[in-house]
Write a structure and sequence with these properties.
The structure holds two protein chains of two kinds. By secondary structure, chain A is an alpha+beta fold. Helix content of chain A is 52%, strand content 17%. In chain B, helix 6 runs parallel beside helix 18 and helix 17 runs antiparallel to helix 19. The chains are: A alpha+beta, B mainly alpha.
Chain lengths: 688, 568
Amino acid sequence: MNTRNEAPSLFRADILRGAVVASLAKLDPRTQLRNPVMFAVYLGSILTTLLGARALSDGSGESAAFILGIALWLWATVMFANFAEAIAEGHGKAQAASMRKSRTEVTARRLIDLGTRQTADVPATELRVGDLVLVRAGDVIPADGEAVEGVASVDESAVTGESAPVVRESGGDRSAVTGGTRIISDWLVVRVTTLPGQSFLDRMIAMVEGAKRQKTPNEIALAILLAALTLVFLLVVVTLRPFSAYSVEASGQGQPVSLTVLVALLVCLAPTTIGALLSAIGIAGMNRLSRSNVVAMSGRAVEAAGDVDVLLLDKTGTITLGNRQATRFVAAEGVIERDLAECAQLASLADETPEGRSVLVVAKSQYGLRGRDLEQIKPHFVPFSAKTRMSGVNLDGQQIRKGAAEAVEAHVRTLGGEFPESVRRTVREIAQAGGTPLVVSRDAQVLGVIELKDIVKGGIKERFVELRRMGIKTVMITGDNPLTAAAIAAEAGVDDYLAEATPEAKLALIREYQQGGRLVAMTGDGTNDAPALAQADVAVAMNTGTQAAKEAGNMVDLDSNPTKLIEIVHVGKQLLMTRGALTTFSIANDVAKYFAILPAAFASTYPALKSLDVMGLSTPANAILAAVVFNALVIVALVPLALKGVRYRPVGAAQLLRTNLLVYGLGGLVVPFVGIKAIDLLLSLVTG
Amino acid sequence: MTANGVFQLALALGMLLACVRPLGWSMARVYSRPAMQGERRLFRLLGIDSTAEMTWQRYAGAVLAFGFVSVLAVYAIQRLQAVLPLNPEAQPAVSPDSSFNTAVSFATNTNWQGYGGESTMSYLTQMTALTVQNFLSAAAGMAVLVALIRGFARRNVDTIGNFWVDLVRGTVYVLVPLSLVFALALVWQGVPQTVSAYHDVALVEPTADGDGKPVTTQRIAVGPVASQVAIKQLGTNGGGFFNTNSAHPLENPTPLSNLLQLAAILLIPAALCWTFGEMVGDRRQGWAILAAMFVIFLPLLGLTVWAEHQPNPALTALGVNQTAGNMEGKETRFGVPNSALWAVATTAASNGSVNSMHDSYTPLGGLAPLWLMQLGEVVFGGVGSGLYGMLVFAIVAVFLAGLMVGRTPEYLGKKIGAFEIKMASLVVLLPCAMVLIGTALGVSAEDGKKGVLNAGPHGFSEVLYAYSSAANNNGSAFAGLSANTPFYNGTLGLAMLVGRFGVMIPVLAIAGSLARKKHTPPGPGTLPTHTPLFVFLLVSVVVVVGALSFLPTLALGPVAEHLMTGSN
């Protein structure tokens, strides 16, 4: 469980090489147009390059070296943005490539006749929905489908990265098989449910490659805000030309601010830091998600995961281990405990259910009772029947039985025995504590009670505490009676429970939460979960689950770990936080850039404005260049943050905001003052 | 500053704060209670179906239609005043461009005045065109605000109220009663209220005119002043009866009238914050917004008060005693603290009335009023319009905060999506664009440059001030700019229209979109919006947007002027 694919190092050599090539390809204006902020920089680069060329040819006006220096760094800004996106895409592509490697040309045995098992070999690509195929040990399953016959162990490492084989069998909740996985033993007849090319693996590959990435709602809203800000700055810069011309007229000295300086100012003011990294952040988020073995069908769902208020979890297999287990034996008054243990063991020898086997485990571990040699004692086993609601063994003329309290009571009474008051009390206590009591009898004597309990998974309580700190309420769903449900809920530490749940009741509960404005997440695996999964805002289907459940969910957890939602929430929140932090940083940067560029731009018109130059920069040309260089370099510096995401801690909204405002707001205010000054020092060394 | 000065500032602001709660509460009642018997009859008389709720589109349509009719009416009355009654001074028809400018100005609650009142407008124009608009344009702003508040408060509905009902209620139950009481108080303090002709009085100290001829009488302008001044102050209108506005001794005769008028500037905008909290069911939200306004207001007030206490370097050179501070353009009866407070209050709220001449302020003293307008008139701002502007900034702040805490942003339980951000961007962008483009035109076009009376950065500030004032519907004038020309009347008029309706329509769109949304109850992951932290964030957003948009212009205007006079 919970295998996490190793995160590739952020700057792997092969990814870097690919990214450099890809960044050049991204200079296509049609690609640039998709990002309004960077498109403005792109146009600025072209404009300053032309201005530089003109200055070179006629030698008039501003120094060509200055213009070309600005142009160079503007191109660098564009390339850095392309590069950030290309790296993020590169990581996805690398992941997709390793998945694709696992997929080879597969030949399928299409069943012509189900009865005779006669098959015909066809390429997997020619399969159609509804075809039946036979898959034997060693075969690769040719397409996504549902097992309709047989039981087999399947190596699903191609999709899950988990090497241990899993069991797939017809009927029930473990019938879904995934194309590209390999059968290790036995055989299956599979009904094809997806067309080749649209299989789960194909969708996964498309997802991690970013081919199908759609902008999420918050990303769209942010893009609008950034475009509006860019428009404001465009207005500021465009109108600065007439303002400056008027000021030159009014003061009778200096030159109006040049086009080059205006372009430089625009690029510095526009939120280029976040603009350049916006799509890289989104892609990196999806990559992080697929590294934790979750396949999201849409980015929207991932973002929604960050907003989840309520999480519904199935009890069985999620909160508790799959089956109830014996935990202790309680002997009746006057009965030796060991006697009870012995009989319990004998009654369970033939019981192959997990409950039965757990009785043997307790007998052995708590009472040191070894397994019996069946040849020697020659028992006659009485299997469980719905009529008697008991099972047991007849041995040496003794009838040993175990079963529900009422059944055993009826049984001993017919034999002339009594049902002791102490046992009745024990039965009641165990039931009230959420356990299941099994009463053991020998002939007419009631020996005592076996306590069966749901075993809460280790570590699950801590996960729920973490969810609570994230502001997510957990609700356990179970078919148990309210008494049992309450006891398990208390033990596991969930906030609420729904007992005696039917599919309708689950659906109604989700709707009720949604009516109240809550965002509901649900994890499920069974076909009967499908309606609820479809209704939930964030629906994580277990990969072990049925095809119906997977289709209804908007995410599939390949590890089938129900508390994986915690990781998904982390990724969803990190996506938003990284965007928010870099936006704040980007805007806060502008203050320092104004202080660098404004005094420089108006140095000849109003020399008095020199006192705004708090950084004491060397020359006006260096000041402007330093601001542009800082603006470009900060993008590169923040690429790792964009790819890794801002750290999320479940500490409450106000605390998070305070921290992030301090780091990215105040930091964004201060850092550029230092950075621009440092770059200016270097520039003044170079230019002398 | 003297202890007396501090006391006077504290008295005015203290009076204001004391009124916030009762007035805010009663306004919330006015807009939320069901129609009363008599009211229903009134609406039926006006042909209004008072029970019909409007979608945001219909609401916006009504706002626009009403605005159009208002402009038309005010324009017509000015053009026809020569042939209409109540014109004892026989004022001729106002010029077409000035009429257009004034009509737009009063219908948009800007009250920019390119004309001199007592020498241009007949009593009929003052009373039926200008004063009526003082009421109605203010009520329209409040109506749009109430529609936005309903957007927050309502759930899963398409409608945001009925504009006509809101307009009538705001006028009849809020503005008229307050003005009536206030006008009587002003009359008691000596403000005239008459329709008689101007008075000729003998001078106590006869003097001589430019040609040396003796002057023994003075013509004193009077009129229905008190009624107009009352609503001028209460409705953040600011259009004075007289040309010199509340610096005129008959418009603002006594220290008491000055104190009352000062408090009246901020009264309704501040109280509406309480109304907002009351109507959305969480009073703390209202206090938070009011706190944000004060956090921006007080430092800027401090800056202006400080700057105006500094001597004027030019006069220092002449050996003038300036212990009272920079007194040029100020009334000696008000002094620096009361003038500076008025200047900052009148530009924080989009009032625009003056009791001193801002053109004569020190560069930094004038910077604060200028920048307060450029912030988008959201620090108090116009009645209704100021608060809806601030709420739009709150939406932007919430959006940023939401991203930073990793949760889809929500404000008052409403999720903020792409549509709200798009509309909020328009609200921020349009006035800002009008200021920048207008000023660029003003300093480039020959017609624009001709009107500038001062040289250097000060001249630039004059043009910048005019467009900042118009585009943000303030109406305050810096003076020093001959703005009653076709060029300025036209471009400033346009800026006022865009600044008003270009903002109102997206605000109503937000209201409509919010009303349709369901309500998300707050959880541990929700960012509370009533805390000092949020107030700080909101203030930062307003200040940073204002600073980034206008730093270059401020540098070329007041800042350059300050640095240059300082170095002289």
